[in-house]
Amino acid sequence: MKTSFKLACVAAAAAVSFGAAAQDFPAANRSVTIVVPFAAGGPTDRVARDLAEAMRKPLGGTSVVIDNAVGAGSSIGTAKVARAAPDGYTLLLNHIAMSTMPSLYRKLSFNVANDFEYLGIINDVPMTLIARPNMPANNYKELAAWIAQNKGKVNLGNAGLGAASHLCGLMFQNAIKTEMTTIAYKGTAPAITDLIGGQIDLLCDQTTNTTSQIEGKKVKAYAVTTSKRLTTPSLKDLPTLAEAGVPNFEVTIWHGLYAPKGTPAPILAKLNEAMKAALKDPEFIKKQEGLGAVVASDKRIEPAEHKKFVQAEIEKWGTVIKAAGTYAD
Ligand code: ASP
């Protein structure tokens, strides 16, 4: 057989088997894995677990499981998905870190624009500024005074360089012109445990992690990071940071779903349809809204718009990060 003919046969066979794999996706005997690049029990994990449950039915009953691949502000788990087989069985759920990592890390083993297929935005989540339960301050004004009195001694937790808590903390330190000692965790689940235990002073974290701790009075809450107050009953009395005295402060965290680059289009279409069905699932909406999140229903639930949105966010946060002069190797 001539080499060129042989190659053509191999290519045709590969196309047929890929086509068949796409048609059969998801196979009855396989589960879909969503990689979460932060610790189990934290806010990103919570969104992923609710989504996994809601996607099971639209994926024909296929089980959707979570793999917490943690560390380095989500860059470890994100890299894992960039290298995964592009067959639809390994996905990534990550947040705003997809737009901060390109400016924060001098070296990344993946390219956010080129190494992923974009499946859609899941939700937008506000953040809250919280403190250890024995913090003497009872409102933001008192907290600002306490921070000023304790300059050089204040500890602020985060989930690593590039995490939402890191970004929020960075903006907060810049806004009040006070440097704090930052303590990096593998997610804000372990960070909030240490906050409750009094090992750290402050944390800025998504309401999906902080609402129940605020309700249970396990932490003290001072403000929300959005431009408007929230409607969630237990959070509605919290002022915005801007109202409390930190002008122009606004951070909202979004989460998106991704597949490795090269995943066949028919599989991407099935995954996007399953994701969109999950976003309309009343149970999913109820759970997310109860934690202060707003489930996406705008054009960003379409892959092309998701990608455009992330590109705009990369530019927006790149400016903030460059001005702050923070980098990691
Ligand atoms: N909330 C974390 C962050 O700061 C991530 C997490 O633990 O889910 O980005």
From TrEMBL:
Signal peptide segment: 1-22
Keywords for the protein's UniProt record, in alphabetical order: Receptor, Signal
Domain of life: Bacteria
InterPro entries attached to this UniProt entry: BUG (IPR005064), Bug_dom1 (IPR042100)
Keyword Signal carried by entry: yes
Gene3D superfamilies, alphabetized: Bordetella uptake gene, domain 1, Periplasmic binding protein-like II
UniProt similarity note: Belongs to the UPF0065 (bug) family.
Protein name per the record: Tripartite-type tricarboxylate transporter receptor subunit TctC
Organism: Paracidovorax wautersii
